[in-house]
């Protein structure tokens, strides 16, 4: 990394990335005496982040977003299941009450949840949850089976899982109705790589995905 | 050009690439080590609220905390999402601590204190919190200050959530087998501090987080702060 970039980074993100509790709090208050007062007054995050519970992917740290900027839901393997009241409540609240502008579904290579789902083993309570990943595999079986290298096949499954969960987000009434009325939120699919710490944008095309989905899942009451 | 005028989406992606470059410059082993696996000591169960980024407020690093965040940090015994997280973190990753954390000024708590319908699936999701409100209706109604009432219901919500955690069979097994600890805490957005409420496996403790010295408890070191888990409760202090 060039010296210039490091300087820029330090300027931009010092105080942003590795904040902490007490010294962090003191620092924030010093920098902006109104910081906590403003935070207490309410939140207006631009993002909803749906990510994996994996300890290595703290949304704020890897994106440099400040407290107050990203509403966050994290579960095993970043799944969005339509009968899961937990994630559905998060999406509903983020879109209808907080009016977030972007929804990011973020998976990661080397996901233990994805790996566990493809292991031929009875995992008890985890079975019903991880079943959704096996369903993603079945939807893309031809493509995945053709990948001979096991690591590459898992990587691809991680990506396909993210795209499928983006689709599940777009299937909700909250997103469809808000997008029709306001032109947001936009849904994005990202994958985090531990090898380099970088986020890869899978370039999910929100507009065309929505269009395809609404042929069957239209919930806008406009037809 | 000020970053404030940039599209936040572009900002997040560019900030990530700057962060990744900085981290690997600082410590070339950082990402290879992350890639080799995770062994977090803590399972954090908190609110989705954007003002409560767990790793940030605890001063810890990627790899330290396994995380589940939902609306109003509600722990519902039959919720498959939370249950799967607990199963994975406790039985497979063998975390040593389960930390349930509520917070002041929680929108979910405020909604549960009101009588209006929130809409969609949210009313169903908030049912356990409504039950907490009803069970403590007199106490809550007696609190004049809106903010204080919201803090109180958040505390009661954590207390109820810890009870559900203590009744979880996986957690029970691991408390018995290997001394897993369960803690109930509250994050005060107004001051940025986390307070131990003394529920769970630890005994109640009057002092707020950050009180005593490191003592002889287990210590988890972050970059700027240190979390100390003692038998009588968890504490946090800044370096
Ligand atoms: Zn994962
Ligand atoms: Zn909250």
From TrEMBL, chain A:
> Recorded GO terms, molecular function?
carbonate dehydratase activity; zinc ion binding
Q: Which SMART domains is this protein grouped with?
A: Pro_CA
What's its catalytic activity?
Answer: hydrogencarbonate + H(+) = CO2 + H2O
Enzyme class, top EC level, equals: lyase
Residues the entry annotates as binding Zn(2+): 52, 54, 108, 111
| InterPro entries to which the protein is assigned, alphabetical | Carbonic_anhydrase (IPR001765), Carbonic_anhydrase_CS (IPR015892), Carbonic_anhydrase_sf (IPR036874)
Under Gene3D superfamilies, the record lists:
Carbonic anhydrase
Cofactor(s) listed in the protein's UniProt record: Zn(2+)
What do the Gene Ontology cellular component annotations say?
Answer: cytoplasm
State the free-text cofactor note: Binds 1 zinc ion per subunit.
What EC number(s) would the UniProt record show? 4.2.1.1
Q: From the UniProt record, list the coiled-coil ranges.
A: 130-157
One record GO biological process = cellular response to carbon dioxide
Q: Which UniProt keywords apply?
A: Coiled coil, Lyase, Metal-binding, Zinc
Instruction: State the family named in the UniProt similarity comment for this chain.
Output: Belongs to the beta-class carbonic anhydrase family.
Q: What this chain does, per the record?
A: Reversible hydration of carbon dioxide.
Report the protein name in the record. Answer: Carbonic anhydrase
What is the phylogenetic placement of the source species in the record? Eukaryota, Fungi, Dikarya, Ascomycota, Pezizomycotina
Automatic annotation (TrEMBL), chain B:
Annotated signal sequence is: none
Residues binding Zn(2+) are 47, 49, 103, 106
* GO function terms (MF aspect): carbonate dehydratase activity; zinc ion binding
Q: What GO cellular component entries does it have?
A: cytoplasm
Q: SUPFAM superfamilies, per this entry?
A: beta-carbonic anhydrase, cab
Q: Which residues form a coiled coil?
A: none
**Official protein name in the record:** Carbonic anhydrase
What InterPro entries would the database entry show?
Carbonic_anhydrase, Carbonic_anhydrase_CS, Carbonic_anhydrase_sf
UniProt lists the family membership as follows:
Belongs to the beta-class carbonic anhydrase family.
> Which reaction is recorded as catalysed by this protein?
hydrogencarbonate + H(+) = CO2 + H2O
Query: Which organism encodes this protein?
Result: Neoarthrinium moseri
Q: How is the cofactor bound?
A: Binds 1 zinc ion per subunit.
Q: Which cofactor does it need?
A: Zn(2+)
- Keywords in alphabetical order, please: Lyase, Metal-binding, Zinc
Q: Please give the CDD domains that the UniProt record associates with this protein.
A: beta_CA_cladeA
One of this protein's GO BP terms? cellular response to carbon dioxide
SMART domains in alphabetical order: Pro_CA
> What are its E.C. numbers?
4.2.1.1
Relate the protein's function as given in its record: Reversible hydration of carbon dioxide.
């Amino acid at each position: 990394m060039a010296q210039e970039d490091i300087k820029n980074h330090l300027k931009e993100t010092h105080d942003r990335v590795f904040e902490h509790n007490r010294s962090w709090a003191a620092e924030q208050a010093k920098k902006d005496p109104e910081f906590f007062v403003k935070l207490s007054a309410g939140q207006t995050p631009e993002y909803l982040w749906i990510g994996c519970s994996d300890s290595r992917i703290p949304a704020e740290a890897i994106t440099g977003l400040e407290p107050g900027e990203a509403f966050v839901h994290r579960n095993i393997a970043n799944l969005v299941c339509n009968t899961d009241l937990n994630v559905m409540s998060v999406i509903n609240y983020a879109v209808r009450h907080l009016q977030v502008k972007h929804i990011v579904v973020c998976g990661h290579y080397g996901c233990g949840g994805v790996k566990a789902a493809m292991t031929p083993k009875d995992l008890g309570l985890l079975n019903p949850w991880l079943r959704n990943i096996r369903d993603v595999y079945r939807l893309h079986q031809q493509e995945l089976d053709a990948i001979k290298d096991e690591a590459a096949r898992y990587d691809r499954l991680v990506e396909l899982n993210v795209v499928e969960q983006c689709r599940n987000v777009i299937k909700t009434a909250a997103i469809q109705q808000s997008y029709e009325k306001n032109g947001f939120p936009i849904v994005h699919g990202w994958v985090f790589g531990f090898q380099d710490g970088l986020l890869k944008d899978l370039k999910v095309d929100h507009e065309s995905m929505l269009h395809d989905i609404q042929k069957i899942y239209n919930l806008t009451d406009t037809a | 050009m000020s970053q404030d005028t940039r599209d936040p989406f572009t900002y997040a992606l560019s900030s990530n690439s700057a962060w990744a470059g900085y981290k690997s410059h600082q410590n070339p082993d950082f990402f290879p080590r992350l890639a080799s696996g995770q062994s977090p000591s803590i399972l954090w169960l908190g609110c989705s609220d954007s003002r409560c980024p767990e790793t940030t407020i605890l001063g810890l690093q990627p790899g330290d905390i396994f995380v589940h965040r939902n609306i109003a940090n509600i722990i519902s015994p039959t919720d498959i999402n939370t249950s799967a997280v607990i199963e994975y973190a406790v039985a497979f990753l063998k975390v040593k601590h389960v930390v349930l954390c509520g917070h002041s000024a929680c929108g979910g708590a405020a909604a549960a204190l009101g009588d209006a319908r929130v809409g969609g699936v949210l009313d169903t999701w908030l049912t356990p919190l409504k039950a907490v409100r009803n069970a403590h209706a007199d106490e809550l109604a007696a609190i004049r200050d809106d903010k204080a009432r919201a803090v109180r219901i958040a505390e009661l919500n954590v207390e109820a959530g810890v009870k559900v955690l203590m009744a979880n069979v996986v957690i029970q097994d691991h408390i018995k087998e290997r001394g897993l600890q369960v803690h109930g805490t509250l994050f005060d957005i107004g001051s940025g501090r986390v307070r131990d409420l003394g529920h769970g496996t630890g005994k109640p403790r009057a002092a707020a987080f950050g009180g005593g010295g490191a003592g002889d408890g287990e210590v988890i070191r972050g970059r700027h702060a240190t979390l100390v888990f003692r038998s009588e409760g968890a504490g946090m202090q800044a370096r």
